[in-house]
Design brief:
Blueprint (H helix, E strand, L loop, with lengths): L1 H34 L6 H25 L8 H31 L3 H17 L8 H4 L18 H13 L2
């Protein structure tokens, strides 16, 4: 009986793992496709570039944690990291979509500036990995030629919750 339960749990974990990787993979591939579509508007491609870079950064950091030789991860810990990566990817995608919606909705420049400030502040105030290489993770942050002026090292779940709370309080 114990063996059957272990087999069932292993199959369930594999299914969850496959679904988690599908969400990350779908967002990454969709963004990469937009980025490489030369018929797409440059501003849309720049947003896609940010998404690809943010997802690549996220994936790299998670893979570093998974391959850390100083600590052997259990299958549950590995699954937790994959689910974390998947959740972060989803919330990053949602965050950027919400930003574009709110930024487009703003009519006056001071309204646009306020939306930008809310989203920029949240992206920098909620780091996920506390990356010491600030220049790298802030590569987009002060780029006036990019609409997505956010930190790559962002806890997208917490940042998303923060901007939604702040937008409700406007």
């Amino acid at each position: 009986m114990k063996k059957i339960i272990i087999i069932i749990l292993a199959v369930a974990a594999t299914a969850i793992n496959a679904n988690a990787q599908e969400i990350f993979k779908t967002i990454f591939e969709s963004s990469n496709k937009t980025l490489n579509n030369t018929k797409e508007d440059v501003s849309v491609r720049k947003i896609a570039l940010f998404k690809v870079d943010a997802l690549t950064y996220l994936n790299t950091k998670v893979l570093e944690q998974m391959s850390d030789t100083t600590h052997t991860l259990s299958p549950d810990e590995m699954m937790t990291l994959i689910v974390k990566r998947d959740s972060q990817a989803y919330y990053m995608y949602d965050y950027i979509n919400l930003f574009i919606k709110e930024y487009s909705r703003a009519k006056k420049q001071h309204e646009k500036d306020n939306v930008m400030k809310i989203f920029r502040d949240a992206s920098i105030n909620f780091p996920l990995f506390n990356e010491p290489n600030r220049e790298f993770v802030l590569a987009y942050y002060n780029r006036q030629d990019f609409l997505t002026q956010f930190s790559l090292d962002t806890d997208w779940v917490r940042a998303n919750a923060d901007v939604r709370r702040r937008l409700r309080g406007k």
